[in-house]
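Task: sequence design from structure.
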């Protein structure tokens, strides 16, 4: 397993990490992902650790805390062998302080997560979404106190816009608070919006990407083909409306290219899609999920080899879309291109 530095920190994380959204799954979204109990989760953790995958990602909102509880049970007795990443900020109830990143909410959320995980510290806490109602200084000072108290090791964010990340980093520098070292983002061959602004920001500011849904919300599993109906057992029947949308022609163009490379390399479509991500700038770790041992072992085989430069170009071309304003001039016009950083 390849280990990569997480942002501007000294922490090294595996190129692949495990997403525990399938643990204890319940409800229309997480129930469709999977519902591994503690026994099955422990087996999946065993397989990950054998392969060198020691970073496990979860969130308080995943099945209303059940994912954290099952993960905590699965790693019991081997806390020092794993890295735990969890997230908070999304609603955990209907009360006025059950959502967001206020001092009150963050302190309670961290205490609750520690209890569910059965640990006294979290390696990486990420804010699951930007809280526009809470002053950024309040958020950062609270995170600083939690780091100083030893309850958090590192902090990051998820699903932030560029200005939200940059303003937070600027205030962290101004006041001496911990900087965000990770940004958990949606990034895939059918979802490359991360590249327009957040990737250049990450390169400039030392903020690594932890990639969620690398298979385009289940669209790049190798089971979806041009001219064929959605497989009867596909979870997209129940979950498509929850995830990022994809135009049909864009999807099929990418799938066609993946199919061709699968025949050329002998690798599976998901393995190729994940390997492409692992060669992209700023990506520290790609979060893989699995409902069972077979899926996990297949995804783990996305490492230990690399697509060639020509194969990367094939996928780049198949997945390319026109960048939105104000980013498209940097790709199309020579005058703008001379002022832009090297292509990523």
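Answer:
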């Amino acid at each position: 397993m390849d280990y990569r530095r997480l942002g501007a920190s000294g922490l090294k994380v595996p190129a692949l990490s495990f997403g525990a959204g399938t643990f204890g799954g319940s409800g229309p979204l997480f129930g469709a992902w999977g519902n591994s109990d503690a026994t099955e989760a422990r087996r999946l953790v065993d397989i990950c650790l054998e392969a060198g995958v020691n970073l496990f990602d979860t969130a308080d909102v995943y099945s209303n805390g059940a994912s954290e509880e099952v993960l905590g049970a699965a790693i019991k007795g081997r806390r020092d062998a794993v890295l735990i990443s969890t997230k908070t900020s999304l609603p955990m109830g209907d009360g006025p302080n059950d959502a967001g990143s206020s001092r009150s909410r963050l302190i309670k959320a961290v205490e609750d997560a520690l209890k569910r995980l059965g640990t006294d510290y979290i390696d990486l806490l990420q804010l699951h979404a930007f809280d526009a109602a809470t002053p950024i200084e309040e958020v950062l000072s609270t995170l600083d106190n939690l780091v100083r108290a030893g309850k958090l090791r590192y902090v990051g964010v998820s699903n932030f816009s560029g200005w939200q990340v940059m303003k937070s980093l600027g205030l962290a520098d101004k006041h001496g608070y911990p900087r965000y070292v990770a940004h958990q983002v949606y990034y895939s061959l059918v979802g490359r919006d991360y590249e327009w602004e957040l990737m250049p920001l990450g390169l400039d500011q030392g903020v690594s990407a932890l990639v969620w849904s690398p298979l385009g919300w289940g669209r790049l599993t190798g089971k979806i083909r041009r001219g064929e109906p959605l497989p009867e057992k596909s979870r997209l029947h129940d979950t498509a409306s929850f995830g990022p949308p994809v135009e049909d022609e864009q999807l099929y163009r990418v799938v066609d290219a993946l199919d061709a490379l699968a025949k050329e390399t002998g690798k599976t479509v998901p393995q190729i899609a994940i390997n492409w991500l692992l060669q992209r700038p700023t990506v520290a770790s790609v979060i893989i999920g699995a409902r069972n041992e077979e899926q996990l072992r297949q995804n783990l085989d996305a490492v230990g080899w690399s697509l060639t430069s020509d194969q990367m170009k094939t996928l780049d071309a198949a997945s390319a879309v026109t960048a939105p304003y104000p980013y498209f001039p940097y790709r199309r016009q020579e005058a703008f291109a001379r002022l832009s950083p090297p292509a990523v």
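The mean pLDDT is 91.
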